[in-house]
Queue: 4 jobs
Job 1
Amino acid sequence: MSTSPVSLSPEIQDLIIDVLRHRVGKDERAAKPHDWYTATVLSLRDKIIDSWMESTRRTYADGGKRVYYLSLEFLIGRLLRDALSNLDLTHEMAQALKQHGLDLAVLEDLEPDAALGNGGLGRLAACFMESLASLDIPAYGYGIRYVNGMFRQRIDDGWQVELPETWLSHGNPWEFDRRESAYHIGFGGEVVEANGGVKWHPDEVIEASAVDTPVVGWRGKRVNTLRLWTAHALDPIRLDAFNAGDHVAALESDARADSLVRVLYPADSTPAGQELRLRQEYFFSSASIQDIVRRHIQYEKNIRTLPDKAAIQLNDTHPAVAVAELMRLLVDDYGLEFDEAWDVTSRTVAYTNHTLLPEALESWPLPLFERLLPRHMQIIYAINSRVLRDARKAGLDDLAISAISLIDEGGERRVRMANLAFAGAHSVNGVAALHTELMKETVFSDLHKLYPGKINNKTNGVTPRRWLMQCNPGLTGVIKDAIGDAFLDDTEKLQDLNALAGDAQLGERIAEVKRSNKLVLADHIKALTGVRVDPDALFDVQIKRIHEYKRQLLNLIETVALYDQIRSHPEKDWVPRVKIFGGKAAPTYHNAKLIIKLANDIARRINSDPSVGGLLKVVFIPNYNVTLAERIIPAADLSEQISTAGMEASGTGNMKFALNGALTIGTLDGANIEIKDKVGDDNIFIFGLTADEVAARRLDSYNPRDVIENSSELLQAVDAISNGVFSPGEPERYRELMDGLYDHDWFMVAADFDAYAGCQRAVDQLWTDQASWRKKAIHNIANVGWFSSDRTISEYAREIWGVM
Ligand SMILES: *Cc1c(COP(=O)(O)O)cnc(C)c1O
């Protein structure tokens, strides 16, 4: 067993006091808990720095290739527990703090949850950063340091209210301000011919400067850097205006720069369609590419060797403009011929697609793009003419050629970012097997014909450090006792649990851990919502972004149907259930916000109805984020993964739940399919239409009205909601939402309802046989080790980046 290369000196208590006095500026008698938190992080950070510098030196000495992960989102969550655990210093730090009368867990709770992302895509980037460090791969993550990240969700009278998240209000002891690593980012202006070449003269220039956060890998093997860009005006203040008394105008350019890094666009899988969003994308892509090129030139001198030393991964199309930016630097600044620049660019860049939803395929109005980035527009035209020439040569027809074009010519002309990313990358990957196949058949079918072999699959994963060891120490301990600790370094070793699945004692111990996690969650639910839940009930959980394709509505309608059933047949042996919901809706997504209100309306009615006798409770836990997920997932019995088949690219929540011993109820969508393959058909509850069947029924005349009218349970539930049973103060509140089910039901809620409800009764049946339930839970834990992001990153490293 390797020991941590970083160790706290025996005088850690003294170190904390020293930091508290000299860096925080507080006497230990006057220090507030937050001062102690800051001193703890700074002390730990000092220890990390040595290993960070060591990692950097080693990379330079090896002359190795680096991975650059460009992502507009990093859903990091808290870092203190993660860093302590990965360095194996948790116990030592807790002891040291105890000497000062402090509880580490209390200090950990003071850390704000860094939510620089919306959902799965951003959390994937965070898991990947941790796995890159754990696998000892030199890597930088590049993104934006949003001053306000994801909004904080408050529930007022059942409605979502969005509040700014002020995660930086007490400063951020993890980060290093690197004002010396700064770049000029231009916007607008014009392109002029100058001695044989062209030169872009932007009419606005903003400075991007780096803020670095160390990312500690498992057992401290390596510390990598998350480099987030912040913006400054070149002239922060116009003194003439200020002195003339116009204080606001004097500070205008600083406000303009600040606006670039102020907010994370809070839409999940739909482009914001705003100029500021395009400016953000270019700002961070340009700063990152300039930084990558500068580092390469500093050590290699020759820009032509860039693909040997740098692998740039684009997390979705948000950084796709990086393709044009790299081309611009190579051609305009380094004087490469266009063809050679294209070769260097495409051998360096790879692209990950995250969604097939047509409304989420990013494109920008051409006039806007051209006004903001005139030189990049020229380069995109040049790339396009090359791509279209290839397409003609390959004998593709006009329809295929217009689908491949980087410019959408239909109606208002737009620049298609996915086509730019696809053309400019040597690898284009999907994030689960089904998603990758659908990419080939649908959105990218023509590009796939032109560039066969570019599309490949890399099924997502999650880091087992955060999503098992740290969030569920109880379960981790039981597993260690059962099979030893090899699984800590290789999650697939969890398979050794399969042989013990029938061991009643192990089943008992795992059930005890689950129960104590449920007790903790029950207390939290009481504190947050006022609802008392029974820890012996089945905890049935759906936590994720609120979106129609994820079908929280299917779950809610089934909840209403179950409520009706319990009231009609109180004599039956109903399994006590707690239905737990959590998730944020994009502020402009009307139906998603209405679904949150519906969940809260249903909860209020059911929770106060004595006739269900506590057999059914419904809770909506506000402000779903990484920290809350870490608390809820270890306490879940049932994981709801019920998206309309063909619409969830992968899902990663599904993996976290199974790893913590919840059974899945789900459709054959995204990574659910691969989870089913791993855990076995008997250990998962699968229902509903397949992706092919969904596609066929949409073409064929799907008539949801007939379906609803032929299912008495569904009809009763939909009518109750529609007629205001859950919204007596506003009976029409859900009329339109329910009419949508009758009229088109794009997401196949009605089509899948009976299968889903039937499957839920099979879940009840199994719950009454706890021995069988526990056995299946063990098979889940045992067989989902493959969904570690270490496995995912190893595949990227070998098959895309060439770094392993
Ligand atoms: C894992 C995770 C997600 C992704 O969940 P899905 O169920 O895959 O959509 C979103 N948000 C948070 C906070 C997460 O931890």
Job 2
Amino acid sequence: MNPADPANPADAARPTGPAGRGARPTPGRRPGRLPLLGALGGVVAAFAGLAAAELAAAAVRPEAAPVTAVGGAVVDLTPQAVREWAIRLFGTADKTVLAIGIVLVLAAVAAGAGLLALRHLPAAIAVTGGVGLLGAVAALSRPESSWKDALPSLVGALVSAAVLYLLVTAATRPRPAGAPPAGTWAMDRRGFGRLAAAVVALSAGALYAGRRLGAYGSAGATASRADFVLPRPSVPAPPVPAGAELHVPGLSPFLTPNRDFYRVDTALVVPRVDADTWRLTVHGEGVTRPLTLDLRELLSRPLVEHDITLTCVSNEVGGPYAGNARWLGVRLADLLREAGVRPPSQGGPADQLVARSVDGMTIGTPVEAVMDGRAALLAVGMNGEPLPFAHGFPVRMVVPGLYGYVSACKWLSELRLTTFAAYDAYWVRRSWAQQAPVKTQSRIDTPRAGAEPRAGRVAVAGVAWAQHRGIERVEVRVDGGPWQQARLAAADGVDTWRQWVWPWEAAPGRHTLEVRATDGTGAVQTGVRAGTVPDGATGWHAVEVSVRAPG
Ligand SMILES: Nc1nc2c(c(=O)[nH]1)N[C@H]1C(S)=C(S)[C@@H](COP(=O)(O)O)O[C@H]1N2
Ligand SMILES: [Mo]
């Protein structure tokens, strides 16, 4: 698509006939700088519109800002293949890349509209209105939206159209009478420049104010997190066994610090939920006592602490989307029982628990898994701290043994009991499996791919996970040779990963290291390579290194 083409004023500006001295200038008929000013005017107008929209969104809600709303819609509509590609290419920066992409497309359209405006201002204003409408529709399509969400985009379009009108008028205005005759006529470039500069300055101010006000809008949430004192667990987790941490340089720490914990979600702005107004509802099939709880009520129940490794189904073999934390929360099974829920094995009608977040994410978990005795939690604490906003404050789900997209709903707001036959959650509608237990995986953390260790003893080390089954053995091999048993760190339980280390007598040259794990049931990790879709990657992690000759 090239919105500039149909009415490219560069073509229009080509002299098509005599424009004799003293002829009245027709806007857009003058060759030279005018198209550039038109495009510039369009971009400046769009910037003003975006800034105004951002300011308006601060008053409505951050999700209603046009770039965020369009970005959210793009994320939801993106075909699986493209999404995979984007995640592979950009990793967790994918959201920033998306926002930049949207802004660039908008700038291109705006430049086109500016060019169009020189020939036909009403058409350009119509384009601006159309873009605004698109933003409004995107905002209205977002989860939990209200009619107000359309306002930022509409305000933005209005401001943008007004600025475009003013700039184009300035750019195409003939020099005032009495001005020195520079050619036959000239646009009032200085007037345009001054106006454009003023608009840019004002818009930058509005953008800044919008961001500040947006932050102010979530001040309640920030304060509620700061004031939130983690309750003491009635069942504390035993201390992590000393031997669980091998202290090998380059090896992932046993507990992942919150700031290093991977983040995977569809939220373009992290929801900042105010703990004081947060509510959780529990309802649906087989619920005989529907519940609505605020945070205080939820936490009046006994709390347990449990170490659980969380992994993402989008993690490639050897990838970074795995983290281990000490979670504090209420046992989900107890809460469900309180609501009258029975698992399918005890005759309950619902086999799927659908968790919904404040940002409209839906995550479906087997009721049976949640109620089979494992530490499925409604977590409020992560490594001794209230959940960080990015990890689901105030309450999220964590279920050992299931990938995050089928178990770990952040910013939880609702639990609904239904069946897998009746309902597909968000990712299931996007070609991922309904059910997805974690597959046994192992990763070499050190040496890294491409490392150049010196010949001699090299510590090969990493982590292996098979949540809720545990890790029984890890083996390493060099250049496809025999598998050699690695030394396992002490187990903290079956729900966490386990560090391992293998002392390698490395000879100079290029070598390939591979790792595989055996889970607590005795099943060996498969070497068959499979991609992440639909239910998690398989294969052995391989790392190539070049061993240098001894010192
Ligand atoms: N509300 C919400 N919860 C969510 C997601 C999401 O996009 N939105 N992503 C899920 C996925 S795919 C994973 S792997 C985990 C990641 O949790 P983390 O970001 O705390 O590591 O959150 C899960 N919970
Ligand atoms: Mo995930």
Job 3
Amino acid sequence: MTAVSSFRSTLSHAALGALAGLLAAFAALAVAELVAGLVRPPAGPVTVVGGAVIDRTPAAVKDFAIRTFGEDDKAVLQLGIVAVLALIAVALGILALSHRRAGAAGVLLFGVAGVVSALSRPDSTGAGDALPSVAGAVAGALTLYVLASKAVPVPADAGADGEGTAGWSRRSFLAAAGVTAAAATSAGALGRFFTGRQGQGAVASRASLILPAPASPAPAVPAGVQLKAPGITAFTTPNSDFYRVDTALTVPKVDAGSWRLRIHGRGVARPRTYTLDQLLARPLIERDITLTCVSNEVGGPYIGNARWLGVPLADLLKEAGVRPPSEGGTADQLVARSVDGMTLGSPVEDVMDGRDAILAVGMNGEPLPFDHGFPVRMLVPGLYGYVSACKWITDIELTTFDAYDPYWVKRNWARRAPIKTQARIDTPKPFGRPAAGTVTVAGVAWAQRRGITRVEVRIDEGPWQDADLAAQAPLDTWRQWSYRWNAATGGHTITVRATDGTGLVQTEQRARTIPDGASGWHSVFVTVP
Ligand SMILES: Nc1nc2c(c(=O)[nH]1)N[C@H]1C(S)=C(S)[C@@H](COP(=O)(O)O)O[C@H]1N2
Ligand SMILES: [Mo]
């Protein structure tokens, strides 16, 4: 036997080990998904490990992920987890060729990681959440043990006889591998099927939900809120285009029939639990409100405006006996909790000061989409989403800012976060090449609760010039603006700034999104050819 052929046989043997490892990992994940599908889909291993990673990611990294991958951030994370898993599976598979027990034990260790992640998630419902990871790990360990025992190396002194034995053993390995792959594929598919079926009740409950007419319809939006400039944002963001920011790797599918909302805590004289029908039987209000994410960079996309339908939250709180701090109430923080364990804290004073804080059931004329919080979410005009806009809400607890830090505050974001005045250029696009002559520069500006009274545009280092403002819809919505620019050939920087209803000019001071929202002027560089 030459050195080269011995090297080759070692290599092909290692390839069998790698294949065994990958198949074991595949079997582990498939069995875990099957068990999760039967027990509780959100307890699937990739979901719980991904969720645990999200929970532990430093705010700066999370902000980077949102900025870089946008709404694909979760897909990137899941892909990353699977890629890391595959690498480790290959290593364990090769290890198992010489140390079968150690390889199998390595797979079991991954089960432990899955169990720890599952139980640490804020929405963990108890020991049952460990089941998918345990079952997957056992299946994976057994698979690796059996496959490794069949991956017999080609004997170094293989004569005619030896070749025969090696060929036979390789066939037996490949047969076992094929059976494993087929079984795992079926288990995975079955798991997906059960997961899908569990969501069907929720889907049906949404499909059959008929939204009542509002007792208080949205004030008419003036005809002039929508400018005609090409490339400008729509005044009302369609649900399908509305940005989505949350920590949910699987979107909660809540059945409206079994959904409950509990209101309790400090200063709640009459704690209550509501069904959806009870909420829908109350007088509903309909309002146009622009929602903004604190992770929105200057000029960024994480803002949207919709027509929301819902129950005035302050009325429910008053009925429960809650008083705002300014009237002697003992609770200054309202903590909203979602079915997936997210917590968001809002100032009780803001929720009860007369603004249209609502428990929304409708978005642009239809029941809330699952992505946006079906069946009920909270909204408080003027506050960033992470301190107000709890999706899939199920619990409202009155407490104090001293006593409790919600999810994002534990991760170094500010306790209180009113939306900062901002203006954004939507057209022309960055590095665009508009033709010389009249160019329409246009965009949106927002200062929810305060309104926008002025927008100014500056070309290069020139003087600030007033932009034309679209009609002002309610104060809680963004406002469009446009400016006719006589563009000369060359490279130009267009900068915009807004003034809000209190007379304050938007600050030039650049701030990062952490801890309480980005600030600074948006500018766009274009080349006029
Ligand atoms: N349950 C839950 N609610 C949540 C969040 C979340 O992660 N989980 N994210 C909040 C944040 S940071 C924002 S900006 C808004 C975004 O709402 P949208 O996805 O409907 O645009 O939801 C808020 N409500
Ligand atoms: Mo957000």
Job 4
Amino acid sequence: MFSDRDEFKLAFLKRLEMMSGKGFQETNPNDHFMALGHMVREHISMDWINSNEQYRISKNKQVYYLSIEFLLGKVLVQNLLNLGIYDVVKEGLSDLGIPLEELEEMEPDAGLGNGGLGRLAACFMDSLASLQLPGHGCGIRYRHGLFEQKIVDGYQVELPEHWLKNGHVWEVRKNDLAVEIPFWGRVESHFRDGRLTFSHLDAEYVTAIPYDVPVAGYKNGTVNTLRLWSAEASPYPAGRDILKYKRETEAITEFLYPDDAHDEGKILRLKQQYFLVSASLSAIIKQYIDRKGVINDFADHVCIHINDTHPVLAIPELMRILIDRFSLSWEEAWDITSKTICYTNHTTLSEALEKWPVHLFKPLLPRIFMIVEEINERFCKELWEAYPGDWERIERMAIISHSQIKMAHLAIAGSFSVNGVAHLHTEILKEREMNDFHQFYPFKFNNKTNGITHRRWLLKANPELSSLISNAIGDQWIHHPDELERLSGFLNDGAFLQQLDMIKQKRKEQFAKRIWEKQQIAIDPTSIFDVHIKRLHAYKRQLLNILHIMHLYNRIQDDRSFKFYPRTFIFGAKASPGYYYAKKIIKLIHTVADKISRDPVARECIQIIFTENYRVSLAEEIIPAADISEQISTASKEASGTGNMKLMMNGAVTVGTMDGANVEIYEKVGTNGIFIFGLTAEEVLRYQQQGGYHSAEYYHHHEEIKRVVDQLVDGFLPDGAEEFLPIFDSLVDGNDQYFVLRDFASYAAIQEKAGEVYQKRDEWLSMSLKNIAYSGYFSSDRTIGQYAEEIWGIHPVPNFLAK
Ligand SMILES: *Cc1c(COP(=O)(O)O)cnc(C)c1O
């Protein structure tokens, strides 16, 4: 432990030499990072032990958050801030000639997630601990997180990611808490003591080893646990080819699936899902029994939240444990299970709703399949009683139909709460996608609009802006982000707006410097930084953005005196490796960027930067430098978005559609705080249901649209005819599923308006400040507070033993 700078320095030097086996002069930044990391983890450990002890003795209900992804990024600096030792450490290191930023560079991003869903889970962990709530994360320790993206010749190339290369300083492996997970084999039933019992025979076992990662709350002594499971060969491999068995076992936690919207349909993915659920439930039940719980009261003391349907097997798995191990009746087990599990839906895209073919599922998980079958039978019987004769409805709602298991249906039937992630998304679920279920279970549906932790996305990512805010309104906003609203008192304060402007300028210069170092491109830091960062997906419409840039280029070609305020368009996006169309769009962005950079007139106004390998730590550099936030998904398709919230909190102004949480941003900042364009969700859904949209009409009747679309393939772009024909086809012959051409004109108009407002400095800065001032609502502290109160029924358990 260390309490001041000198004590820290001594302890650090000693630790550094002990760990590296080198004299100080010989050590390198990675040695420094490892030494500091271990010191910080030890610093946390007393509070961690005490927090766990509090939870063990507490009678309070506990929640377990099961998620197939946790996109943590780097955690060193966040830990320093939350533990309140940031200044001591930074200054101590600085005395030794070590910049903290240099150490931070050494920490690999823990990229155990694809995008929004995984980052949400990480933000939730921070808020749970900061609110002193008894909430534990359960996930998978993938040996390789999301692939590393390289751009070669404008194409995305995927490389395996190696975050564990130098070991993971934050984790603690707990061999004594390992559990065995059964796969394959067969089930035998017996009639014993007047009841039917089941045994799972000839199973192949896989050992699940927990690695615990501490999650420190903000200066409150609470340290929660994120438990990540790793698959290893069981010591009892039951007579077979040992090497093959070992390889297949370790494969379960080898890779994160690089996909966030399509069902991969891989048996390995199903293994991962059951592995996570079965290991987590074993540990949850053990902890509950150790707390001397009586199994019948389980649902009063434990809540299990499933983040999307990936962990939905928690439902049949809990049933299995209650019936096979605790000998409860089906009815008793169902009563407990359906009062314990709650479910968050993250998408209405039908291709992203998970389904598993029975022929894959049944042999891999024989006992679980039996239970799912019985859940389905009983569920269908209930439906039959409610809707006698309505076969069509029952078929639509069944959990198993046409030899497919529908995971979302299982999730809704077996949980007591189903929430969407933004107001609009929840309404669409209730009124459309899940309408049958909403009619049957109206009481289960509720909304919890997503949030982001302001401690990472503002306090940590933007220390300059954080100080400006604290100087103006005090630092209570860190505990109560709603207090940011007090900034609205400065909307017309010229001197304050000036300072805000200077801070943004400084971060833009920093980012420009980084781009120069990494990509040898000089970008103009006085231009508008127009930022589009998120996974590459057709519905997120990076295509609309790049087509509009081509249109701006055309305007310059037509009229060499046409001038607009210079813009730097910044993209960051990974495409799923098998997502051909998304990869074409990455190539298109690069091809257009190259074309424009060769035109001496156009490049004065337009620059395009594609940042390689978009990830959490890169987001933390881009977001504070952003002027404009592109949130231009086809309305109704983005469930919430959280990138929109991060950018808003850092004073970027949104150019967006009325989709996901953009709608709620609009409600907070009003018409003068955001640039809204395009079709509404209702209009999109009406077109989809009733037809009436013909993209060819937009193509043929709007000269400027026809021109950019033709330019994809007419030789304007090198190799366009081969490269971009699939994009051309999707827009014209494929009837433009995502309404890119339909929204084109209104997008161009709003972008022009945004450019004009940007030049009225005080008006723009005031708009920017308004976004910061009303961003407190989008803190995940608010979101988690609502989950805790309205779904989980949990209360804070302060760590009274905190040192
Ligand atoms: C926040 C975040 C996302 C989600 O962005 P959206 O714009 O909401 O899709 C994805 N990836 C990373 C690295 C993030 O930090």
